[in-house]
Amino acid sequence: MLHHGRQPSLPGPAPQLLLTLRSSSPARLSKFFSPRTCYQIRYWGKRDAKLNLPTNSSLSVTLAQSDLRTLTTASTSASYPEGDSLILNGEPSDITGARTQACFRELRARRAALEASDSSLPKLAALPLRVVSENNFPTAAGLASSAAGFAALVRAIADLYQLPDTPDQLSLVARQGSGSACRSLFGGYVAWRMGSAADGSDSKADLVAEASHWPDMRALILVVSAAKKGVSSSSGMQQTVATSGLFQQRIQTVVPANMDLMEQAIRDRDFAKFAEVTMRDSNSFHSTCADTYPPIFYMNDVSRAAIRAVEAINAAAGRTVAAYTFDAGPNAVIYYQEADEATVVGAFTAVLDGVGGFKERAQGLKSEAKLDEVLAGILKGGVSRVIMTGVGEGPIKSDEYLVGEDGEPVKR
């Protein structure tokens, strides 16, 4: 699993996926930034747990790498002791789980196929792997850390092995680690098509639009809790599949309609429709969780105060300028367009004085929306920090790595 370990401080360096190749030959380096994503249309439920095949398609926005990152270095050498290893956020992490092993096994098989077809290639597939990874956002608290971690791991090892696979081909591998990970291999606006093949060969990521298509999309993340959630996503979704009466309606009717509406809104750069579908799908998802037996509650009073704040901001603006969404956790992601930053962000800076994470440009922003004292008090008492970000690109090259020439983690 990729969700244990000490957390580095927030915010930190840019989101990055970094790969380093170490072997008995001179070191070769290939380094990347890797982003995280945030749902607009949620994946919740599996039709095949072993292959991580979803019960519905989903869609997300890739967030800017200057604000959220997973940094991963993969290395290999004939001099390493036998056995693969993973260090996550400074602590050894278990890699014996079926999902992690599935990723390692598939990537090794692809490298072995290259070596079999070209005898001049170094024999890397049989060598032990050392992987070191860091997040700069909370794991297991509804910020898609497991997905970002598996995407980073797959991309790092794929580049270590110099695989020719395209991002959509690698998404088939990343999906086996974490279903949502397949979307983190792309930038911009990304769908995960559920597919229908029993072997999962058509269940992969699909680029809906590049970040450059709608570049002024922004997001304000209210970090309500960095604590590990009480019910994990994997456990929660299976409980929902088994017990929720609303679940079948969601996957058969609600999600297909929302996918069509969302993709059209993105193509048209229609923020009002984007916002409506985003909020409706978030509501639908959490209603289905509440309908699970026993019920699952990922949001809390601070989350609900954030919803009321968005409603107040839109009412004051006289149009839809902000949209809330929540993954499987209490942290609010609030979308807005760059032109409306003063209206949206200014409403929160007014009540979150002293809370860290606001960028310098947010200082002095004035909003026509004034949040009432009750909402202001709940938010002030419950938001630990904020992250200002926006739509961003997929993995890009970096210069930093986490493993030294001796194969040991670099002290930072």
Automatic annotation (TrEMBL):
<dbReference type="InterPro" id="IPR005935">
    <property type="entry name" value="Mev_decarb"/>
</dbReference>
<keyword id="KW-0756">Sterol biosynthesis</keyword>
<keyword id="KW-0067">ATP-binding</keyword>
<keyword id="KW-0456">Lyase</keyword>
<comment type="similarity">
    <text>Belongs to the diphosphomevalonate decarboxylase family.</text>
</comment>
<dbReference type="InterPro" id="IPR020568">
    <property type="entry name" value="Ribosomal_Su5_D2-typ_SF"/>
</dbReference>
<keyword id="KW-1207">Sterol metabolism</keyword>
<dbReference type="Pfam" id="PF22700">
    <property type="entry name" value="MVD-like_N"/>
</dbReference>
<keyword id="KW-0443">Lipid metabolism</keyword>
<dbReference type="GO" id="GO:0016126">
    <property type="term" value="P:sterol biosynthetic process"/>
</dbReference>
<keyword id="KW-0547">Nucleotide-binding</keyword>
<keyword id="KW-0444">Lipid biosynthesis</keyword>
<protein>
    <recommendedName>
        <fullName>Diphosphomevalonate decarboxylase</fullName>
        <ecNumber>4.1.1.33</ecNumber>
    </recommendedName>
</protein>
<feature type="domain" description="Mvd1 C-terminal">
    <location>
        <begin position="219"/>
        <end position="396"/>
    </location>
</feature>
<keyword id="KW-0753">Steroid metabolism</keyword>
<dbReference type="InterPro" id="IPR041431">
    <property type="entry name" value="Mvd1_C"/>
</dbReference>
<dbReference type="InterPro" id="IPR014721">
    <property type="entry name" value="Ribsml_uS5_D2-typ_fold_subgr"/>
</dbReference>
<keyword id="KW-0752">Steroid biosynthesis</keyword>
<dbReference type="Pfam" id="PF18376">
    <property type="entry name" value="MDD_C"/>
</dbReference>
<dbReference type="InterPro" id="IPR029765">
    <property type="entry name" value="Mev_diP_decarb"/>
</dbReference>
<dbReference type="GO" id="GO:0005829">
    <property type="term" value="C:cytosol"/>
</dbReference>
<dbReference type="GO" id="GO:0004163">
    <property type="term" value="F:diphosphomevalonate decarboxylase activity"/>
</dbReference>
<comment type="pathway">
    <text>Isoprenoid biosynthesis; isopentenyl diphosphate biosynthesis via mevalonate pathway; isopentenyl diphosphate from (R)-mevalonate: step 3/3.</text>
</comment>
<feature type="domain" description="Diphosphomevalonate decarboxylase-like N-terminal">
    <location>
        <begin position="41"/>
        <end position="204"/>
    </location>
</feature>
<dbReference type="InterPro" id="IPR036554">
    <property type="entry name" value="GHMP_kinase_C_sf"/>
</dbReference>
<dbReference type="GO" id="GO:0019287">
    <property type="term" value="P:isopentenyl diphosphate biosynthetic process, mevalonate pathway"/>
</dbReference>
<dbReference type="InterPro" id="IPR053859">
    <property type="entry name" value="MVD-like_N"/>
</dbReference>
<dbReference type="GO" id="GO:0005524">
    <property type="term" value="F:ATP binding"/>
</dbReference>
